[in-house]
Amino acid sequence: MTGDLGIVDEEGYLHLVGRRKTVIIRSGFNVYPREVETRIESHAAVREVAVVGVADPLLGEAICACIVPMEGAIVTGHEIVDWCRETLAADKVPDLVRFLDALPRTDTNEVRRVELSRLVESESKSS
């Protein structure tokens, strides 16, 4: 087993949507970060994004979009949420948006999602 998750469309094509360990369970719904990231990446002011789940007492996990904006771009969290609402189901729209200078990465250039989740959770506790 690879841990990859996919869906088969009406025409029988397989589309990979994420990995089992990255699935966010928000209010009982499975949210695949890659789907949310794809939408946010299409925003002109976004250089890169990683979507992670963070512990939430009501939702189980809240969806947090961690965004590195394009140099010189001005974008707000509300703008990103509205952008997502245009095409994503309501249960896939980020609950939180954080802007960062860079995403933490491994030596193989993979985003350190656990580290991002912890960063967001620690920010929430200190605010």
Give the total of beta strands.
7
Strand order of the largest sheet: 5-6-7
Radius of gyration: 15 Å
Stated plainly, the CATH topology is called: GMP Synthetase, Chain A, domain 3
Could you tell me the mean pLDDT?
Answer: 90
CATH architecture: 2-Layer Sandwich
Can you count the helices?
3
Let me know the largest β-sheet. Answer: 3 strands, mixed
Please give the alpha-carbon distance between the first and last residues.
41 Å
Give me the CATH superfamily: ANL, C-terminal domain
- The CATH class turns out to be Alpha Beta
- Residue stretches low in confidence (pLDDT < 50, at least 5 long) are none
Strand content: 25-35%
Helix content: 25-40%
Helices and strands, in order, run as EEEEHEEHEH
Question: How many domains is the backbone divided into?
Answer: 1
What sort of overall outline do the alpha carbons produce when their principal axes are compared? globular
- Which structural category fits the helices and strands? alpha+beta
List the SSEs and their pairings.
Layout: E1 4-8, E2 14-19, E3 24-26, E4 29-31, H1 33-41, E5 46-56, E6 60-69, H2 77-85, E7 96-99, H3 113-126
Parallel strand pairs: 6-7
Antiparallel strand pairs: 1-2, 3-4, 5-6
